[in-house]
Amino acid sequence: MEIDLDNLRARSLPRGVATATTSLVASAKNARVIDTEGREFIDFAGGIGVMNVGHCHPRVLAAAHAQLERFAHTCVHVIGYESYIRLAARLNEKAPGRSPKRSYFVNSGAEAVENAVKVARSATGRPGIVAFENAFHGRTNLTMGLTSKISPYKKDFGPFTPEIYRIPYAYCYRCPLNLKYPGCGVECAELLRRGFENLFQPERIACVIAEPVQGEGGFIVPPPEYHARLKSICEEHGILFIADEVQTGLGRTGKLFAMEHYGVEADIMTTAKSLGAGYPIAGITGKVEIMDAPHPGGLGGTFGGNPLSCEVALVVLDIMEDERLPERALEIGRRVKERFTAMQRRFPQIGDVRGLGAMVGMELVTDPQTKEPATALTKAYRAKLFDNGLLNIIAGTYDNVVRTLMPLTIEWETLERGLDIMDETLAQVTAVR
Question: Which of 98, 270, 375, 399 has its CA 20 to 30 A from that of 392?
Answer without folding.
Answer: 270
